[in-house]
Design a protein that fits this description.
Annexin V, domain 1, 3 domains, mainly alpha
Length: 302
Amino acid sequence: PMYQPVPIQEAIKQIKVHIESKNILQLSQIMAQYNFNQRYDILQLYQSVNHKNLVQELADLTAPNSDIIKNLFENRYDYWSKFIDQKLRTQQMENLLGLVLLMTDKEKIKVMQSYKSVYQKDLFDVLLTTQSTDHKMTDVYQFMYTQIKQVNKQQVDHNDVVDRLAKVKDQQCSVKIQIFSQIMTSINAVIFKQVSELFEMKHKVTLRDFIKQIFQDKTMMYAMLLQHDCLIGQSQGVATAIKNALQRKDKDSIITLTVLWSDFYRGAAIQEAFKKFGDLKQDVCKLFDGEQCQVILSLWRL
């Protein structure tokens, strides 16, 4: 498919035709031409030209997969905070980790503003109160809380950080978590990459593989790996979250990640980030059938 954006006025005409014919794949290919800000303009213009609400028209379609397209027109940060709330209530930890740890500092501010506006609660407080009701996952909630609270600006001694990380191998689990959490939520991406390179040079193992060796709990290991990958590059973090969802055969998570991130890491960017895990196109099509697979791939421009 061609992903060169057509003028929005032309897109409005095409969208109307494809809604009438219930052609979801064509609609997804049009949406893949624009980002979430431009889709807001499309929403306004569609209402002005056709005197109809585009989101409602999409909601009224009985065609399978129309919900994926409808979700693209939600405010990105409201959509994000809605799913954080949903996963907090159902305590789906690996989904929640993806939604929380993938936030950049700028995105944290917007998601938290949205969360407070919609739910009249502070996300900090919710994470703290939730962790106290689920003792098994207290460390994971604490890690998410620390990550959101921290703005990564700290200057560090690289050798000291590498030595502190290496020494956790013989520590108790709670100490390992405390040290890794403190380091990985308090240094910025540039410093973290330098620390990772120095760690591998000194200890002949990648920091990522070291994390796999020292954390036994599956959820805590995923939290640390995801945070590691986000610091290496946000597209790496997105790829890791997608791989995790594919392994769990969690279709809803793949759709959520597609709606939130396909605007940012389309085509070669997501393929490159995912390649250490396999072939993204093939893996998506193993989980999703026919048109749904094609719709998701078209949004990622694959």
